[in-house]
Write a structure and sequence with these properties.
It comes from Saliphagus infecundisoli. By secondary structure, the chain is of the alpha+beta class. The protein folds into two domains: 91 residues, Phosphorylase Kinase, domain 1 (2-Layer Sandwich); 221 residues, Aminoglycoside 3'-phosphotransferase, Chain: A, domain 2, CATH 3.90.1200. It is 47% helix and 18% strand. The strands form three sheets. The protein has a five-stranded antiparallel sheet, sandwiched between helices. The mean pLDDT is 94.
């Protein structure tokens, strides 16, 4: 427990005794810190701190959780307290029911993994039923609705890319961001036809949990009104695909089956826009290269050469229309 954690707990739970404070695991967002807290009476909560002092992410997450809970689209954690006006803004949530999707996935056999992938597809489709007139960034509000700073989808997507760039730990592949932004803007006519739905923004397995309803989502701080095709593509990459190559066809199809079962089909324009999202998604690798190196058993220079070549290949596919 450091001073920021202690101050948040004292502000919210002044009369309670803390038994333990523990890390929730590695995070690639160095602007936040999240800990699990257990009180002396056995009750547990999670505390997320915006250690960079920017309360907009906490405001957004609090608003979206309240709104999604009211729509009953998917399961979300319950917010206990938050304070965005302190020097270190924070959000307190209860533990969610059920189990982490990550743990379920690691223990599952192939058939069980396919069932989990279908459940993720269904959950995303239910979330994407929440439609808006325009794309944009969520700035606040709550159960009755969301305040959205609207704009053309291409502009919003470029701003999301720049927000990702602001979080990367080093600038080794900073030029990739410029190249992808140029490609996105060149495909403006294609992108502007995208539907506008509420999207989670980071549907990785650690941000999912399983309960009696299916799959729910944690960590809503980058939720926005975006293209559901991008979110489904991102989920496929984060949930199923290894770093190099594609995920097993049966799992990709299971994810899509689940989505179709709820939505009647994949998002409009999914196949046409998927190539541009291939390039956008890969910024999550090249931008966070130093994080990947720490978890892989291969020389950094060899991995860097592959990253450079892979981005070239993804952007070339856009140029030749493949």
């Amino acid at each position: 427990m450091d001073d920021r954690v202690a101050a948040a707990l004292e502000n919210t739970f002044p009369d309670r005794t803390v038994e333990t404070v523990a890390s929730t695991g590695p995070s690639w967002n160095d602007a936040n810190r999240t800990v699990g807290v257990e009180f002396a009476d056995g009750e547990r909560i999670y505390l997320k701190l915006a250690i960079d002092g920017d309360g907009t992410r906490i405001t957004r997450e609090r608003a979206v959780i309240a709104f999604v809970s009211a729509t009953d689209a998917v399961a979300v954690p319950r917010v206990v307290a938050s304070d965005v006006d302190r020097e270190t803004p924070y959000l307190v949530t209860e533990p969610v029911p059920g189990r982490s999707l990550e743990k379920r996935w690691m223990e599952a056999n192939p058939a069980e993994r396919a069932a989990l992938a279908r459940a993720v597809g269904r959950a995303l489709a239910r979330l994407h039923r929440v439609r808006f007139d325009d794309h944009g960034h969520v700035t606040g509000s709550g159960p009755e609705g969301l305040d959205v700073e609207t704009g053309p989808w291409t502009t919003v997507l470029v701003e999301r890319i720049e927000a990702m760039r602001s979080l990367v730990p080093a600038d080794r592949f900073d030029r990739h961001f410029d190249r992808v932004i140029e490609a996105v803007e060149a495909d403006r006519d294609l992108l502007e036809g995208a539907p506008a739905t509420l999207v989670h923004g980071d549907p990785a397995r650690p941000n999912c949990f399983c309960d009696e309803r299916g799959v729910g989502f944690l960590d809503w701080e980058i939720a926005h009104v975006g293209d559901p095709a991008r979110e489904l593509h991102r989920a496929c990459d984060q949930q199923i695909a290894p770093l190099r190559g594609c995920g097993p066809d049966r799992l990709v199809e299971a994810l899509h089956e689940g989505y179709r079962a709820e939505a009647g089909g994949l998002p409009s324009g999914y196949e046409r826009r998927r190539p541009i999202y291939d390039a956008v998604r890969f910024l999550g690798v090249s931008g966070f290269f130093e994080k990947y190196v720490a978890y892989r058993e291969e020389p950094a220079d060899e991995l860097a050469a592959w990253v450079e070549g892979e981005m070239d290949r993804r952007l070339a596919r856009l140029s030749d229309g493949s």
